[in-house]
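Chain and conformation:
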Amino acid sequence: MKKIILCHLFIFSLSISAQEDIQEILCSGTSNDGALVELQVDLYSDQSRIVIEDQAYNLSSNNDFTIAWSNNVEGIRYENFISKINGNMLVIAVNEENSESGIRANLNCVKKDNRVIK
C-alpha cells in the first residue's frame, strides 16, 4: 500500500513540475505620441516565447538581464526589450524601407503578483 501511495505522489509531483512556467507581467506607460499603453505579457521561459493579446512571439533573448523579441506590423519591425533589472520596457520601431528607427514606447513592467495596488 505504501508503494502505491508513493507512486501516486511521485506521478503527481512530476505532473506539477511538468506544468508550464508562466510569469504574468503587467506593463503600462505611454507611446511616443502620448497614448496610454497597457499590456499583459505572459512569459513562458521554458519555451522561450511570450504571449501578448493572444499573439505568441519567440524570444530572441532571455537571460539574467533582459527579455527581447521582435514583431512586424504593417511593414514596420518592432524590437521589444524588457529589463529584468529595473522593469523598463522599450519598444523601438525600425522602418527598413528608409532605414529609420526610433523609440515607439517606454513602459514600466512588474510581475502581476508584485503590483503595488491589488
